Amino acid sequence: MRGKFIIIEGGDCSGKSTFMKFLMEKHPAPEFCYTNEPGGNSYGMKIRHLLLIADGAEESDNLTKFHLYWASKVENFRKVIFPNLDAGVSVISDRFEGSTFAYQVSEDHRLENLFWQTRDVCLRRIVPVYIHFDVDVETQIARAKERKRRAGEQNYFDLRGVEYRQKVRCGYLRFFNDKRIKSFRIDSSLPKEDMIQSAYGIFKEIVGM
């Protein structure tokens, strides 16, 4: 029996990584396979470096980012996701194509048809289920500042302002409102424990616990 492909999506500082950490501690591998985008395997991590860290990453063209993000997904799908699903292991991914839609397609709507075509080729009839962590832009910014204060951790996305973040959030909402997408929304403005328990209840329903 094929495993389920569950994608944890949401904007920066939405709580999705907090929930991923909760799942990995409560249900460690090999009960589930955990992966992330961009990245997921050694080659994908090189692409991640190009996208987020390498000199010129922030200034790279939106179309360049679009194709690099899909390149990472294809490698991850071929080397990690598909083999595990075929072996009956459910795969949980920290982000996948919803983020590409929210960040790159919302930047240039001419990419939308190409997005859906590429998605069909990549997913190979696999139907993911999404848990969408949604939070207002003001909360995102406050959390980004707190994260920097606590850990000194920041990338160029953390520095983006209200207008950019609002556009990304609208991109996510447009993606999740598409009839092709099966998703569950989590109110990420909830207190941390309430947010986690809300998402965990949905997760258990998806995997049949």
Topology:
Elements: E1 5-10, H1 16-26, E2 33-36, H2 42-52, H3 62-86, E3 91-94, H4 97-105, H5 112-123, E4 129-134, H6 137-151, H7 162-176, E5 182-187, H8 192-207
Parallel strand pairs: 1-3, 1-4, 2-3, 4-5
Helix pairs in contact: 1-8, 2-3, 3-4, 4-7, 6-7
Low-confidence stretches: none
How many E-type strands?
5
Given the structure, what is the number of helices?
Answer: 8
User: Main sheet, how many strands, which sense, barrel?
Assistant: 5 strands, parallel
- What characteristic shape results from the CA principal axes? globular
Task: Kindly describe this structure.
The chain has helices at about 15-25, 40-50, 60-85, 95-105, 110-125, 135-150, 160-175, 190-205, and strands at about 5-10, 35, 90-95, 130-135, 180-185. The protein is globular, with a radius of gyration of 16 Å. α1 (about 15-25) packs across α8 and α6 (about 135-150) packs across α7 (about 160-175). A five-stranded parallel beta sheet has the order 2-3-1-4-5, with helices on both faces. Helix content is about 55%, strand content about 10%. The model has no long low-confidence stretch (mean pLDDT about 90). With about 210 residues, the chain is α/β, with parallel strands linked by helices.
Summarize the structure.
This protein is of the alpha/beta class.
